[in-house]
Batch of 4 targets.
Target 1
Amino acid sequence: MTAGAVEARPSHVPQSELRSGIGYWLASLASMMRFDYGRVRQWVPMMIVIQTLMGAGMALLYGFFYPHVTAIRALYITTGAPTLALIPVGFVMLPGTVAEQKLEGTFDYIWSLPSPRSAQAASTFTLFTLFALPGSVLALLVAAWRYDVHLALSPLLVPAVLLCALMAITVGYGMALAIASPMVTNVVTNALVFVVLLFSPIVYPASQLPAWLASVHYFLPFYNMAVVIRAGLTTGIVAHVATSFVVLAAWTAAGAAATAWVVGRRR
Amino acid sequence: MTEAPAAILVPHGTVARGPRHWLHAYAVMVRWHLASLRLWLVVLTIVQLLAGVGFVLGIALFFSHIPTTAALFVSTGVPVINLLTVGMILGPQLVADQRSNGSYEYLRSMPVSRSVSAMAWYTVCLLGGVPAVVVALVVAQLRYDLPLHVSPMIVPAVLLTSFAGTMLGYALGHAISSPMATRMVTQLLVFVVFGFAPVLYPLSQMPRWLGAVNWWLPFRHMAVVTRAALTPGAHAAVLSGYVVLGVWAIVCAALAGRALGRRP
């Protein structure tokens, strides 16, 4: 090597510079998915078992709190169960994983890889959506069997579940990125789950809430998740489904914007 | 202190036995825990208060009009959960963290006997649980106007419930060496205590076989003895509750003791 060549390309610049283009983006997504899956592979069976147990468990345990599970209560619990199963993946597991990556330093390592950060985020979204779905389906099946509820499935269910999963994961990821301290992330996610499991009209009608709390929930994602999924499972029990879709889409956009803002910033 | 030179000469130190040394070591260990966990304990107390009060108030949302029985069961069950939170759920996770960051071996090298360690930790768990119990009960009384009647039996009930829970957590934390497994087991326990044990709702509302399974687990009995001390009237199954809890506490303490080994 001549001295001039060394000057033109200093040795600390990686040979594979960041490239762009849709082909490169897709190739990056594929390798990031392989990378992410490889990292969690040993925990995947356990994660899926815990997910399904939690989903099915939640469907059952809400029934224990009632002296008599009336038909309408059974319907609410059954159609709320898939929503409940989706929430922990997006709002607890994903932020928890990111917090752990930050502690271990893996997070910085991933950012240093020569793949577009949007591809890295997309890979996480895809994997966690896949993790979330089995628990959700099983929660529904267990609840329907336990409470002997007849459901009227509509094609609306597919976009509803996908949007809910995407929303939970986008918002959870945006939150995990936007909050710098892993400790704070941990406290926030645990508090969130508590609020969601008790104070959100997911397994019971919103009419049982005090008026002010109900109106807060019209703007939060949890009630709206329950509405769109319930709309895909029943007929005539929920109204204003379109509004709920809009609110969920807005939350997804907000989560994506937070992700994009953090990801696009240079440190 | 006569044993100080020995502690300097022998790398690991030896433990001075006898009631006077025991009490001294106990006081030092309690202070040690309180000092090292001071920030954690403040956060914990706030979280405990919010969770306890939140659960007492939140359960009303499940019903259009909450029946008094449901309110009474939740309000007398939440104290049990408050008592279990530190010793059984956070304690093992704390030990798991200590194993991950290396302070576990350091703590075990301290020249105190394992009974001192256990009792000091139990005291800290009680201190972390009791304030939330009181506040949750007061809020429940104000919100639902419940027929509560606190009898002197609340003292042994609280002490034994906390002791059995703490010892169970102690055994989990020290006998399971993998931090990841400890976290999984404690999360499973939270789930069981909240949803699959008759703590927050009557036994009659769960399937009969699940109630039978629960007879062998400690949580049902914790709820029975605590509830009996908080509500008027005679209660069956209190005596057997104390017996089962006592057996759990002893077995778990023995397991933890075996895992820890005798301090030379």
Note: The longest helix of chain A spans residues 71-104.
Target 2
Amino acid sequence: MPITEEMRARLQAAFAPTELEISDDSERHRGHAGYREGGESHFSVHIRAAAFAGMGRVARHRAVHAALGDIVPRIHALALDIGT
Amino acid sequence: MTDAKSRIDETVKANDVVLYMKGTKEMPQCGFSSRVAGVLNYMGVAFKDVNVLADDEIRQGIKDYSDWPTIPQLYVKGEFVGGCDIITEMTLSGELDTLFEENGVAYDKDAADKIRAANA
């Protein structure tokens, strides 16, 4: 399963988001540190969910990191845009 | 406390603003580190840079210290503030200005306003 699909499944289950967009930006980083052939190194996530209400920025990021679990150490970069 | 943890603890408490990054503030080696160092440089903030690529123990240790999996990591007065996304958001919202003001960290407000105007 592509990592984007694994990420989508875990984020859906954890937060029931109203908006969820995940992109694999790896090609834009070709030649940069962390790029590897075949991609799946650099990702960005746009997520909106009521579950984030009342949480500070750091707590929101930590919640997403926790939901993604072992995916985080497998990838090189993860840009997060988190809101309610 | 492990050796890495005590070294980090000492650094973030001895310096008002510390950026753990890949590369140095003069020569960043990653786009995300470069962006945060660039904001601080542009805002005229005096900060200590720690190049995690030069020290494997710190490279892993800083992730354990803050329970945060990525680099860069910004600390103000010993407190973890965030990584690249959070610092970018806080710069644009003005929250970073407030944080610096509350902690007595000197910065150039006009430069911060220019960043916001350019990204409006």
Note: The domain at 3-118 of chain B is CATH 3.40.30.10 (Glutaredoxin).
Target 3
Amino acid sequence: MKINPAIIISVKNLLKQYEDFTAVNGISFEVYEGEIFGLLGPNGAGKTTTLEILETLRDKSGGDVIIDGLNLDKDPNSIKKIIGVQLQAAGYYPSLKLFELLDLFGGLYNVSIDKMQMLARVGLEDKAKSKYKDLSGGQKQRFSLCTTLINNPKVIFLDEPTTGLDPQSRRNLWDLIRKIRDNGTTVVITTHYMDEAEELCDRVAVMEAGKFIVLDTPVNLIDKLVARGFKRSKEVKQANLEDVFLDLTGREWRDE
Amino acid sequence: MNGPKPYSQLRAMLAVTQASLRSIFRNPSTVAFSFALPVFFILIFGFIGKGGFSVTVGVAPQSDTTNRAYSIIRAIPVVKLVTNEPAAQMREELNRGNLDGILSLAKSSDSSKPALQMVFQKSKASAEGGAMAELILSNAVNRANLAGMPELKRTAELRVEEVTDPAFKKIDFILPGMLGFSLLSMGVFGTAFVFLNLRNTLVIKRFFATPIHKAYIVLGEALSRVIFALMSSSLIIVLGYLAFGFTLQHGIFTFINMLLLAFIALFVFMGMGFIISGLAKTESAVPPLANMIVLPQLLLGGTFFPVSAFPSWLQLISKALPLTYLNQAMRKIAFEGVSIFSVWPDILALLIWGVIVYILATRLFKWE
């Protein structure tokens, strides 16, 4: 992370009210350019709603959002051009092949892309001629990630990108996300996996019932907890069962 | 962004069209309904039509088949003779209407009567066929009699000419009906299912995060359907023309006018599909709704039999349906060779339907 990071997303008093309940209850935060920013919380906390508002997919009831200097109320179309989006449980024309889907998104963003190179970035070059419906869960998520990069965005939003994936696919996806960040793209991610937030995110906002409980780097959060006198009840080993599995089966992508 | 080039909604829309078209071609049920099924019906009706009119007459066993009358009858093209069945079986077939009559011929031993005695038995089971057979056989007997009296002075003579003007064949009635059926089912089912599916699988939701406007997504999908429908319509027409002699009165001009008409009708039908996709919550709710729109039109719109064949109260319903006007106009354009402007009353009826349908569609259509 840079010493004086520029602010690329600025959210003030974001509010989303439905008839019978409030999904987002006045949150404010900033996202620095080039960081991986996480929204961590249980299901129903309001993470996806928050994300969808920033992604221009959902109207807000109140508050201000500025992305890369563009105001969400005044200029949502310009925002769409500079962001990439990975939806939770998204779909693509199922019988289309991957390179045909990339044609589609190239057209939607009005860009010409090197399709094989894009697929290579996520390790799917030999699946270029496969149909989307024939991919495994991990491959589908990797392809989804690929489509977020088509327009060379400044920020990508990932909604629970590793839900439902096995340990290897998760790790592979994390590696990919880190590479994308290292390339200069800011990443905003929602997750309910604690280990994902700890491993991946530069800063994490813990969210519950529409509000932020705390916002800090994972290291700081853990240090502060320990400083308050917290002690783990069980003896902590140097490795856990997941490490055993990964060691035994190998860390490379294993195409199912 | 890449340079100062402004965002082209058209380019985005065409990308949607291309993706949607590829999807359609890989969907077997769409291809089946829009193309295979109409072609199947055309083949069936085409081959039935080739049979033509005929009467089937059984020849009683032990009939005398050496006389001149019998050879005249045997030479008549529309008479089919059945000669190898026992009498009891023939009788049963007559009662069932499978035979139009039974003919027996016997030489007479009584010199006061004509030398050849023929008896023709008919049944109410095949009233029309029996009446026709009777006429044909009477004519044959008269001819046989006249042939035996060459010295008889004729007072009238009949000469038969076949008119060579274009004849309205069965295929000329059936093919436009099948075209209408194809357009209707493609428009209604194709649109309803696809939008429901895409909505449910969140395919379109992803598009919203791109700069394309919602209207252009709909237009892109609609355009792909139009292209596919026009392609399958063209194939149907060409197949009918080449294989069954379908009349294209003024060749390419007629062909193009037919496609223009198809285009207009398709938009009306697609609007109906939009309405259904807005009303139906799940995929299983689509067929009942869609069939409510498609089946009545199929049966009453003059697809398989002319509207004039229905009782007048039923015709009132027929005259309210858009498919009726499409079929009418299509037949007129194809057989009479007129342009699409000549059938403007039918077009007007379609357009009125179009307005109603799209007002409803914009109210009911949901994105999510």
Note: The beta strands of chain A are 7-17, 22-32, 36-40, 62-67, 70-71, 83-86, 155-159, 186-191, 203-208, 211-216.
Target 4
Amino acid sequence: MWVLWAAAAQAADVDGAVDVRFGVRTEPQLTVEHEHGEVEAREREEEEEDGWEPSGLVALVATGRVASGGGWAGATGEVWAYPPEEHGTVLRLAPAAGYGAGGSGTPRLDLAARYALELAPADPAVDGGRAEATASLGGAHLGLALDALHHAYFSRPTWSFGAASLGPRWQVDRGALRFELRAAGQLNAGHDARDAPVTGGQGRLRLGAGLTHGPVDLRAEAEGIVAVGGGAPAAFLPPFTSLGAYDVDIDALSAGGFTQVRAGLDLVAALGQRDAVLASAVGRLRFPTLPAADLDVAHVALGLRHDLGDHVSVSALGAVDAWRQGPTRVVDPYAWVGLGLTR
Amino acid sequence: MSWLWLLAAARAADPLPREVLALEHEVATLAAQVEAARAAGAPRGQLAKLMSAYRERAEALQAAEAPLLADRLDAAAARRAEATRRLADAVAREAADPDARAVLVEALGPPEARLDALQRIVAAGSPDPEVAAAIALDVADQAALLALVFDHDAGAARAAAHRARTRADAIAARARAGETPTVQDLAEQERLRRDAAAQDDAAQQAAAQAERARALRDRAQGGG
């Protein structure tokens, strides 16, 4: 195995990273898909028994990647646990591969696909696999993008859903500044609250802007979605991943119809030779047809990284996830410190 | 007849003052020094010092040239002189100035083809010493401008490679901070890495062409 890895490293562009994180989180069980009303009931029980119960956070994340010519392949393996809380623990293995060609005045083609196997020992209902693929073709300014995803739940097939979107994009780079405009039509398929198959459609318009100057990369985007059809989803999809970030899957159901606006801001900036700061903010407002699709979301995070050497770094991140659904309001602050190794 | 022949003729008839010629040489040398220091990863303080020296001499040159250019050159030639100054400034800042580049390329033609043509002219030479001297003067002028264009291209490509790498690294940094990258992010990250590698190659090729142009300029100046 190591001989193969060494041979690959000689012949191609190879890198990888391992990160260990320790921290605290307040509502880890809210990152797990569940039947409607299930978590609220559990929350009420906990409040009656002990009140608010924060938990620890332990995570091990390993990534590897190899690229040669226009092709590349990689994989991420993750374990997230929230001791002593059982709910929310997740094991995730996600191999990915892709190919790119063209550029510099010639048409450009980019293909990528990823499959993520997710297992939750304490919540077997959410065990599943998520497959996604993207293809884009175009020139320096105009192009066409096709995206598709399917999330299959092994023991709850009616929770499974899929989406496919197709649309043009226009982008312009002006040195440090860049702008992008994307439009897409999307078809969604899933099951409603009575487990009947439903399909829906979406029209999406996304405006993005970015600034890369020296060691600073700043990007901002706003996306509007008009969804029609579908039905109240069979399961509650949490708006945040087990890692705490906004989960784009929650936009992949038409959910009976809604109008949604989401805006985000991301900053990564190096401070000197060894330090970097990361900041992000996401806000989403949804105006639904059905109460089950009502879900406003906010997320802010601030992280710092300090390189101890060429391959070792320490990092820290503090974040707050918040969402509102009807009268339910949840705020989930969390923080972690980490040690990372890179190659 | 190109504008450089006219400029060469004007200079031959009524050469620019020695101090202006010395300033031109000094400014080009300082711009190249700033670019070389930046390419070598010199500390920010050293770059600022070099930039300051460059700017001070560039402004002095502009002030010295302005009345002379106004007197001697037509509007098109003045536009080219202004483009030359702007391109030298862009080289020093490792920035792109496509408009200034376009003005010079309009006058010179495609840079690689013009460099090849100049090399053939120098190799062919002339038995008439006066013609040989005139050719050497014009070749040296054009080769110096071509070196500036290639230095600009190399700097712009290096800056584009740096931006692409910064963006790709930012996607990786966000992932390590807990954001699960989408498959579109992964495709974008790989595209940016390929772009960075392609721009690195383009920068190396442009830098090699700039060296070739400088060697031709020195050879022409030696021959003239």
Note: The first strand of chain A starts at residue 13 and ends at 25.
